[in-house]
Amino acid sequence: MNSRSHTPKAAHKRRHGASAQPVSVVTGAAGFLGSHLVDLLIARGHKVIGIDNLVTGTTDNIAHLYGNPNFTFIKQDVTEYIYLAGPVDYVWHFASPASPVDYLELPIQTLKVGALGTHKALGLAKHKGARFLLASTSEVYGDPLVHPQSEDYWGNVNPIGPRGCYDEAKRFAEALAMAYHREHGIPTRIARIFNTYGPRMRMDDGRVVPAFISQALANKPITVFGDGTQTRSFCYYTDMIEGIYRLMMSDIVEPVNLGNPAEITILEFAREVIRLTGSRSRIVFKPLPKDDPRRRQPDITRARKYLGWAPRVGLTEGLRATIEYFKSRR
Ligand code: UDP
User: Fold this and answer.
1) What is the pLDDT of residues 88-120, one digit of tens each?
2) Binding site membership of 8 for ligand 1 (Cβ less than 6 Å)
């Protein structure tokens, strides 16, 4: 593996003394994954500065942290220059619209945060001598011609299709991270995040998990797009956040897939949601959105081997917890 030996812990100790607290900056801190990452970092002893412009995130996700001396929130668009006083050890770049409905509504902001926002976040890491982790995506594989997808597959992306704004922004972000690594020696990490779900997803973000659960809870028709034979592989957020943390603390510069390899068709998924909610909903079929990937399943060999990581939470268990969350929010 092409990795650079860099020990942020050693640098951190040199700078702050052995007992000082690590400082993390999380962009997209009010989002679904960003806010869970903030919680994990605080639980592991970090001081966290969260940045979010609240375009798709919500302060509800971080409200429990108000008054916590280890958390500071800055409402800012990360495509603008990020000025922070004091040391920073880790930059976690999670800011971006991430659901197809959101990035179809916000194509330019999606492109800007992937390009300009990643540039600013990398610039911050460079200035502070910090490690950097990019929240990338399985969408870099597009509608994949290789199955399951391993990190050495270069993808099948339509740059000018409706998903192009997200896919190409993340592909550019990966290229920029690698350029900062090669040119400036920044210790960069790239997490290719596959479909992840759990509490704090927005009920109306359009993604299949909140869509089907909210429809089932209201006994409304479940909208399966296409014939429902397309597949996804769903990872519970606790597994994902642990994988992300391990990746940052590793020395792996190449992209690493993080996701749950348990693949399921969308039609089977709809039936599982109906079963677990005890809903009276029926299934209706709607047109398949353009460029909707036919199959998606992560090959997580690299994560297993180098991070000692694999998901632990099965779909039924994770869905039960997610359903409870959505019930509590109705
Ligand atoms: N989907 C669906 N009904 C919905 C929302 C999504 O059948 O109400 C399908 C969508 O076409 C895709 C899969 O579910 O095949 C996952 O969609 P999602 O928006 O969650 O994210 P994606 O994996 O496509 O990025």
Assistant:
1) 999 999 999 999 999 999 999 999 999 999 999
2) no
* Residue among 125, 106, 139, 107 nearest 176 (CA): 125
Minimal-distance CA residue to ligand 1 atom 23: 195
Asked if residues 318 and 195 have their Cβ atoms less than 8 Å apart, the reply is no
Q: Taking all residues of the chain, what is their mean pLDDT, rounded to a whole number? A: 95
Task: Tell me how far apart the terminal alpha carbons of the chain are, to the nearest angstrom.
Answer: 47
Q: Find the catalytic residue in 90, 103, 141, 166.
A: 166
Element (H, E) at 302: helix 301-307
- The fold of 18-201+235-261+297-313 is Rossmann fold (3.40.50)
Q: How far apart are CA 172 and CA 156, in angstroms?
A: 15
Range list of β-strands (E), the chain: 23-27, 47-52, 71-75, 90-93, 131-137, 188-193, 196-197, 222-225, 231-233, 235-236, 256-258, 263-265, 283-286
Is 245 assigned a catalytic role? no
d(CA 141, CA 136): 11
Calpha distance 136→256 (Å, rounded): 9
Nearest atom in ligand 1 to the alpha carbon of residue 289 is 11
Q: Is the pTM of this model over 0.85?
A: yes
What's phi and psi for 73, nearest 5 deg? -115, 135
Answer whether 251 contacts ligand 1 (Cβ < 6 A): no
| DSSP assignment of 199-218 | TT--TTS--HHHHHHHHHHT
Q: What is the number of residues in the chain? A: 330
| CB of 292 shorter than 6 A to ligand 1 | yes
